[in-house]
Amino acid sequence: MSKTHKELVEVGYRWLLRAKTRNAIACYGACGVAFKEVVSLSNEQPDVIGFRSNCSILIECKANRADFLSDSKKPFRICPDTGIGEYRFYLTNPEIIKVEELPEKWGLLVCDRNCIKILKDAQKHSDYSWFMERALLYTILNRMKHFDLLDAVNDARYNVAPYEYDMDLKPYEPHRSF
Predict the structure, then answer these.
(1) Residue ranges of the alpha helices (H) in 19-150?
(2) At 19, is the pLDDT very low, low, confident or very high (cuts 50, 70, 90)?
(3) Domain count, the chain
(4) 124-145, pLDDT tens digit by residue?
(5) 43 belongs to a structural domain
(6) Which residues have a Cβ under 8 Å from the Cβ of 158 and sit 6 or more positions away?
C-alpha cells in the first residue's frame, strides 16, 4: 500500500536518525539531529533535513507523480545553488520516480512498507545555499530559545565532556607548516 506524504516524512525522518554510514564516502547517514517540515525564513521548506558535523542531508517526500513534476518548477530546483542540503534525496513510493528523471546529483530513496531502499546515491552539492540553511537553523534555535529550551545547552554542568552523540566531531588539529 502506498504511503501518504505525512507517512513518508516520518519514515524519512527516522531513516536519517538511524541510518548507518555504508562507507567512508557516503556521509549522509546517521545524522545527529533532524527536523521535519520546518517553516522558516528560508524560501525552501524541507520535508526532512538532517545534520551531521560535516554535512546536511535534505529529503523531499513525494507521494505521487504530480507532486514530483511540480517540484521541478520551484526556484531553488531551477537554480540548485539557491537550495539547501549538501546531499539531496527524493523519498517516494515505488515506481513514482525513475532514476533517469532525477535532477543532477540527487539521490532516490524508495519506501517499501517501512523499509527504505537506496536506488541512487546522492552526490554532494558543493554549490548549496549555506545562507538559507543558516536561516533555517536560526529559526529552529530561536524557537528553542522562545520556549526556554536552550538552558540545558548553556548550563555549565553539561560542558564537562563531549557527549556520546557528538562523536562524529573530529578534534581540532591546528595547521602546521614545516
Answers:
(1) 65-71, 75-78, 130-146
(2) low
(3) 1
(4) 888 888 888 888 888 888 888 8
(5) yes
(6) 152
